[in-house]
Amino acid sequence: MLYVSFACRLVVVAVMALAAVAKLRSPGTFAASLEGLDFVPARLRRPLVVLVPAAELLIALLLALPATVTAGFLAATLFCCGLTAVPILVVARGKKVKCACFGASEVPMSGWHIARNAVLLAAAGLGSFVALALGDGVPADVPGIALAVVAAGVLTTLIVFVDDIAALFQSPVAAGDLGR
Fold first, then answer.
1. Residue 93 CB-density burial (10 A; 0-12 exposed, 13-18 middle, 19+ buried)
2. Which residues, 6+ apart, have CB-to-CB distance to 71 below 8 Å?
3. For residue range 103-125, what is the model confidence (pLDDT) as tens digits?
4. CB under 8 Å to 173, separation ≥6 — which residues?
5. Are 12 and 124 in contact (CB under 8 A)?
6. How far is CA 46 from CA 32, 37, 96, in A?
7. CA-to-CA distance for 77 and 84, rounded, in angstroms?
8. CA–CA distance from 40 to each of 36, 46, 148, 153, 173 (Å)?
9. How do the domains of the chain map onto residue ranges?
10. How far is residue 101 CA from its own chain's centroid?
11. Secondary structure of the chain as H, E, C letters
12. Distance between CA atoms of residues 162 and 132, nearest Å
């Protein structure tokens, strides 16, 4: 189970760090995406532009340091609950809000974003469970570590590029609609 926890740890660290860097690189894009969230009070949107990437970086840091892995997983689990609630509320209300989690995107939030965040929540939750039950040690077997790193890389890629993956499953534009 330590290998699973290690893979979860790598996924959450990578996703949180990539999301934070994207938001910090383009705070205006992230701020614009928050404007569409009518369930977030207007007075909180501006502070969230700073607080969300700060929380993501803090979680990545907590998970990177051996002494704070359990705290990092628990913080990630709570944070991911909120991250999963956002697209659920957006989709349930029928809003067309663009997701700026990993930079500028023209794709509005959908079930794909809910699934992506649920997978991240599952990784954080599973990591929390293992850390609480077995401790937060790092496995020592090189082949197991290599497999955990590869699995984490694949899962991180799927999470970060969910918009591109979702586009593969959308129906193509009808030939007659191209000129309109």
1. exposed
2. 62
3. 777 788 889 999 999 999 999 99
4. none
5. yes
6. 10, 12, 20
7. 10
8. 9, 11, 37, 33, 34
9. 2-164
10. 7
11. CHHHHHHHHHHHHHHHHHHHHHHHHCHHHHHHHHHCCCCCCHHHHHHHHHHHHHHHHHHHHHHHCHHHHHHHHHHHHHHHHHHHHHHHHHHHCCCCCECCCCCCCCCECCHHHHHHHHHHHHHHHHHHHHHHHHCCCCCCCHHHHHHHHHHHHHHHHHHHCHHHHHHHCCCCCCHHHCCC
12. 30
Minimal CA–CA distance to 45: which of 55, 34, 33? 34
pLDDT tens column, 130-172? 988 887 667 778 898 899 999 999 999 999 998 888 888 877 6
pLDDT in tens, 6-21: 999 999 999 999 999 9
